[in-house]
Amino acid sequence: MPVRMLRTPKGETVLDFGRVITGTIELTVSGARGGRVVLRCGDTLDPDGNFYNDNVELFSLKGQTRPTLQRLEYRLSGNGQERYRPSFTYQCFRYVHIAEFPGEAQLPMFRAIPITSFTGQTGFFTCGDQQVNGLFENIIRTQQCTYMDIPIAGPQRAERLGWTGDNQLITPMSCRTMFGTLRFFSKWLEDVRFDQTPDGQVGTMAPYVSFSQAADGSIENPTASAAWGDAAVIVPWELYAFYGDKAILARYVDMARRYVEFMRCSGEDELTFTQGFSFGDWFALDDGEDAYPGKTDKTLIACFYYYRSASLLVRMFRALGREEEAVRYETLAGRIRYRLQQTYFSADGRLTTPTQTACAMAIMFGIAEYPKAVAGQLAELIHRAERLETGFIGSSMVLPALCRHGYAKLAYDLFLKKDYPSWLYSVACGATSIWEHWNSVKPDGTLWSPNMNSFCHLTFASVAEWMFAYILGVRQAEGRAGYREFTIAPVADRRLGFAEGSFQTAGGMKQRSFP
Is 159 noted as a catalytic residue in this protein? Predict the structure, then answer.
């Protein structure tokens, strides 16, 4: 049931359900035959407190307006009290504008019915900072809202797509927090495999939904974007690493190999990957507050991910006992890494075109020959900017990259920051789910462009993996799978007061608390 009914400055009657929900609305109403109920759904209010869903109705992609009717309409039969619940549809909402209603609307007449494929929570975290606790609750809630048969982005708009890049970034976190992640993401990997093209390419979403058609009428599958197509390798590996189930590798190793071969054959030579469109470090702040790709060189991102996927393919083959293939790709990965070091690093081991994201990737992917030097470079960039400037890619890596090389306090400074930009900024603004942008609501109260501004989007929730691995300190032993061997080494900070939590693995419950 809604928690309150608002009368907005524009005179609209609006229901507030207290939190963002993906699902539908059950309605109980009575009135004359032909009477109408019209409800419009939105996930936020505008800066003046009026109903807002321009981020749904004015949403556009590739220059084409793609509105979603976040609208429910019911015509009364006139046979006394009627109960209606829509079928074969869902909306994402916190606020519901009652545009038409026969008689006077009352709160008990409305009930939100959540719809989700989230099969149960297995990861838990709490600490002495209530806003951090609020962030974790928002992460879980956003999983519930965006796991809808496939892991989707934008459940309130026309998208509702399984973006490959977003999903490879959130898979490690999802393994710790959701029961049934192996089955859920394995099902989605079938969509990825089905859509893989004969040359091995993997598109930016799965199942693939065409935005356009070629001149001959055939569906155009977009060229793979670095960090997006790499989901064909990274997601199977992360599932295996967490669950220790070699069947997942056996099922998808050929898909992974074909994608690595696609990258090997499509560059200027077999050591670079430069083909096609690239999202870059999506929604990074280092190229302007309202930019999309960020400042990190797109070729660097593509080639760093090429090395990442090639090196993971080696580990996949080795885990399956296919040593000859492992050695072949180990040689390739070594040559790629050497080329990257020659191209992007100076003699003292520092990046020549540094950004926060580039530094974090170089450390976390094992590309940097002198990772401590690059970590120092990363710290310098953060101090110079006086803020976090990473997008989807960099934000999943920056905190562990700092913690690995002596900058734990700086990592906590970023994580515990409560003003913009930060993970806790949205919590301070009253968010009940994870935003698509650091500044979906800007510090002056205005909203980011309606073109692409979801208030329920999971990608920045990748930070939950760091919360488990570094705050609680439960990390899998290097080279092992299934959490059969693990270390407990929390990187504590007194500002949290205390922290405790647990998560379920194939080998049982893992938990830790401090102090």
Answer: yes
